[in-house]
Amino acid sequence: MTTPHLDTIALIAGNGVYPETFVAAARKAGVRKLVAAAFTNETKPELAAMVDAIEWFRVGQLGKMISFFKKQGVTQVVMVGQIAPKNLFDLRPDFRMLFMLAKLKERNAETLFGAIGDEMAKDGITLLPATTFLEDLMPGAGHVAGAQVRKRRWEDAEYGYKIAKESSRLDIGQTVVVKNGTVLAVEAFEGTNEAVKRGGMLGKGGATMVKVSKPNQDMRFDVPVVGPETIRTAAGAGVDVIAVEAGKTLILSQPEVFRLCQDLKVSLLALA
After folding, report:
1. Are the C-beta atoms of 107 and 196 separated by less than 8 Å?
2. How far apart are CA 199 and CA 66, in angstroms?
3. Are the beta carbons of 42 and 80 closer than 8 angstroms?
4. What is the rounded CA–CA span in Å between residue 209 and residue 164?
5. pLDDT, tens digit, for every residue of 68-100?
6. Most exposed among 28, 68, 188, 270, judged by the fewest C-beta atoms under 10 Å?
7. Cα–Cα distance between 204 and 226 in angstroms, integer?
8. What's the half-sphere exposure (Cβ side, CA atoms, 13 Å) at 218?
9. Which domains occur in the chain, in start order?
10. How far apart are CA 48 and CA 268, in angstroms?
11. Residue 106 burial by Cβ neighbours in a 10 Å radius (0-12, 13-18, 19+)
12. Measuring CA to CA, which residue among 134, 116, 105 is closest to residue 59?
């Protein structure tokens, strides 16, 4: 694994609290200069005040982004925060992105982000693991937050884990919703939150959401993440148990997540 340089690190910043969480952890680790590539209608504008240099891009401006990194003296980058799936299919690619896309036989998160990493490497820029400086935010196996759950709910979580591992292996999605041994929803293009809403509606309360990493997960991108919005969405949909993969899932904004689990009566578990 590449050791992060503390001189300059860049972040490719998507939406949610992930980018600001990374910035805080990187500052704590002693990184002296943080550079951000931000995306219109995705990245929070507040990020600008937290970094030393920032430039805004449309999704697909790969060549422009690499030029910005080189100008800032960047040799290491971390991908933090999701880009909404609809924006990945509304690309306005520059020439470099067009050439890259032309080589891809399949277009999913793994192939797309992996190819971006390969393109940056051509210019001496290394893509670091998305968990860099955030290792303490990945819980070990067991009960994590909220109320303890009965054996039947653990069994649903374990069943959902098995199904989610298979669907993620097929590049369909990394989240499923189950109830009483029945699969209610499998995440696909719509994204985690919409899958949870659909599964919760079908379950009419008492459903379990399971989110896992892919087999042979590339930890440079697409790492499973749970944050406050996940808890709110689950609770609103009637999903009262969330199970994640131990040691491979980031729990962001942990104090707020733990408080929401108590207030909204959602149990958070981690499975080995």
Report:
1. no
2. 40
3. no
4. 10
5. 999 999 999 999 987 765 555 556 788 898 888
6. 28
7. 22
8. 16
9. 8-128 (3.40.50.20), 138-271 (3.40.140.80)
10. 32
11. exposed
12. 116
151, 11, 158: which is closest to 72 by C-alpha? 11
φ/ψ of 186, rounded to 5, equals -125, 130
Find all residues with CB under 8 Å of 36, minimum gap 6, and list them: 10, 11, 13, 19, 43, 47, 48, 51, 53, 54, 55
Sign of the CA dihedral 110, 222, 134, 175?
A: negative
Q: pTM for this structure?
A: 0.88
Question: How many residues in the chain?
Answer: 272
> How would residue 222 be classed by pLDDT, with cut points 50, 70 and 90?
confident
What are the DSSP calls for 151-215, one per residue?
A: HHHHHHHHHHHHHHHHHHHTTS-SEEEEETTEEEEE--TT-HHHHHHHHHHHHTS-EEEEE-PPT
| Tokens at 237, concatenated | 């949909």
Place of tokens 């799936």: 85
Contact 220, 212 (CB under 8 A): no
